[in-house]
Write a structure and sequence with these properties.
Layout: H1 2-23, H2 28-34, H3 37-62, E1 66-71, H4 74-86, E2 92-94, E3 97-101, H5 105-114, H6 138-157, E4 163-171, E5 186-193, H7 201-214, E6 223-227, E7 232-234, H8 240-271, E8 276-285, E9 290-314, E10 350-370, E11 375-385, H9 401-415, E12 424-429, H10 449-480, H11 482-496, H12 502-511, E13 518-519, E14 525-526, H13 533-546, H14 548-562
Parallel strand pairs: 5-6, 11-12
Antiparallel strand pairs: 1-3, 2-3, 4-5, 6-7, 8-11, 9-10, 13-14
Domain Flagellar M-ring N-terminal: 62-234
Pfam families: YscJ_FliF, YscJ_FliF_C
Main location: other
């Protein structure tokens, strides 16, 4: 009884001591100071790394998207930075490139424009205004001059209303003294249209003429113009036939679009949007014909030239040398058939000579006729009109013939209908299928900018939580409360139990005395006289397996004594 009482007192004293130790757990500084130096350094480094990672993740999640504002020279960079600082605008500088938040990009651009700090494009004359230097080679100077000319042409093209940016590339061959071996220059122009505008054919022709007239020896057929979408506006490598066919096709599509616009402007106020559909087809003749005619009109003769000679001699005949024959032939004599008895009359000598020459020219008309290219030979318009909607909710009814004829007359007058040309205008009433109309929805929410920022914040928060829960928290707990971790480990290991084996159990049953195994009054463990370390280890295992609670108290007392 005394032994049992002492054992209970010892156990109760141990419970009180352990409870007091749990109430007075060591502080953080005391626990940190009680560990060895290597452990202290490891914990400090690990906590510092975790804290730095958490801070970086938070800053990364909050950092807005940046967009380059531009690349500036030193003087422009200083002025721009001073303006941004005065406006308290957040920016990031990477070399000579200024990065600003994307959501404030347009606002910052407008502010710089109002302050007169907008970066102006190079005009191409900077090289011409400065000294080239003594050591610059002729080839390098030629390339610089060519680049300067390209910049000047690009700035000139950008003056057009529908052109936002332009880039010009010139291929100018080296001059050759032999004319047969002389190569012709060529040029390439890349243009970017302004938002919502279309580059017209007249503007393309203007660009080609600007480039061709600014470069000596450059022919317009060797200039290539392309837009930002890769659409070929003017080709310097295509044949004349291919280029003409492309222009004819574009002209036909343009004219058809103009007629469709006329049809829409006529029918939209009458029928409303979605109640009709129209299509226009043109048959155009692009045959180029030149004709020269020369016509003569015999009914209207005209005197071209006239020559008249008239000569008359009156009096005695001219005589020559006496005894010689005259140089004038004698006059024709007439001998009457019957002699008359009348007295002879005196004949007066005389001579008359007349000559006339007239040249006539017929009336001539020369006409040179050139037929117009791209003439509309036939126009076809097809219009389908939806049924007339009913008021009382009944089925829609087709439009009557009078309405169809009125719509047809409106179209014929609006598009310039010509029956002699063979134009056709067809208007019919058919029911439309409303279900096939596609309703354009708003873009999905996950494509918005705010959703991207939210995802970044969520990812950053999850990473910080994982670091705190699985890395920082266990390390701090182990550092502040090392006894709890040891107790948890001991209780966990003891609760699992140990497989002592049959040999150990037989050895304990045959060799141990029940009265000799237990705890003394002072709380010490009494074991029988064992021989060898193996026997001692087996006995301890058996005791721990049979009395796990008492064994844990003993271990706690040992740890308390060590401290």
């Amino acid at each position: 009884m005394a032994d049992n009482q002492s054992t209970e007192l010892a156990l109760s004293g141990n419970d009180y001591a352990s409870g007091e130790q749990q109430e007075h757990k060591p502080s953080f500084i005391g626990s940190f100071a009680g560990t060895d130096l290597v452990r202290q350094i490891t914990m400090v480094v690990a906590l510092t790394i975790c804290l730095a990672i958490a801070i970086l993740i938070v800053f990364w999640a909050k950092q807005p998207e940046l967009r380059p504002l531009g690349t500036y020279a030193t003087e422009e960079l200083i002025q721009t930075l001073d303006h941004l600082d005065s406006q308290k605008v957040k920016y990031e500088l990477q070399g000579s490139v200024i990065l600003v938040p994307e959501d404030e990009f347009q606002k910052i651009k407008l502010s710089l424009s109002r302050a007169g700090l907008t970066k102006e494009a190079s005009t191409g004359t900077e090289f011409l205004l400065k000294d080239s230097g003594f050591g610059v080679s002729q080839r390098l100077e030629t390339e610089r001059l060519k680049h300067s000319r390209e910049q000047q042409l690009a700035r000139t093209i950008e003056e057009l209303q529908s052109i936002s940016r332009a880039r010009v590339l010139l291929a100018i061959p080296k001059e050759n003294v032999f004319a047969r071996k002389q190569k012709l220059p060529s040029a390439t122009v890349l243009v970017t249209a302004r938002g919502g505008t279309v580059i017209r054919d007249s503007e393309v022709d203007a660009i080609v003429d600007i480039i061709a007239s600014a470069v000596q020896g450059l022919e317009p057929t060797r200039v290539t113009v392309t837009d930002q979408s890769g659409r070929l506006l003017n080709s310097g490598s295509q044949s004349a036939t291919s280029a003409r066919s492309r222009r004819e096709y574009e002209l036909q599509r343009t004219r058809e679009a103009e007629y469709r616009q006329k049809v829409d402007s006529i029918l939209m106020p009458v029928l409303g949007y979605g109640n009709y559909t129209a299509e226009v087809d043109l048959h155009m003749d692009f045959t180029a014909t030149e004709q020269t005619q020369k016509r003569f009109n015999p009914d209207l003769p005209a005197v071209r030239s006239e020559m008249t000679v008239e000569e008359s001699n009156v009096g005695s005949l001219s005589g020559g040398i006496p005894g010689a024959l005259s140089n004038q032939p004698p006059l024709n004599s007439t001998i009457p058939e019957q002699a008359t008895t009348e007295s002879k009359q005196q004949i007066i000598p005389g001579r008359s000579h007349k000559e006339a020459t007239r040249n006539y020219e017929l009336d001539t008309t020369i006409s040179h006729i050139t037929q117009q290219s791209g003439v509309i030979r036939r126009l076809s318009v097809s219009v389908a009109v939806d049924y007339k909607p009913s008021v009382d909710g009944a089925a829609p009814e087709p439009r009557n013939q009078a309405d169809i004829m009125n719509i047809r007359r409106l179209l014929q007058g609006g598009i310039g209908f010509d029956a002699q040309r063979g134009d056709v205008v067809e208007v019919i009433s058919v029911p439309f299928i409303k279900d096939t109309i596609i309703d354009f929805q708003q873009p999905a929410f996950y494509t918005e900018e705010w959703f991207t920022r939210l995802i970044r914040l969520i990812i950053g928060g999850l990473i910080v939580i994982v670091l705190l829960m699985f890395i920082v928290r266990p390390m701090l707990k182990k550092l502040i409360y090392p006894e709890d971790t040891k107790d948890a480990y001991d209780e966990k290991s003891m609760s699992k139990g140990l497989d002592l084996g049959e040999d150990t159990i037989d050895m304990l049953n045959s060799s141990f005395d029940e009265n000799s195994v237990g705890f003394a009054a002072d709380g010490t463990l009494m074991l029988p006289d064992l021989h060898g370390d193996d026997d001692l280890l087996r006995a301890v295992r058996a005791l721990v397996a049979n009395e796990p609670e008492l064994s844990s108290l003993v271990v706690k007392n040992w740890l308390a004594e060590d401290e």
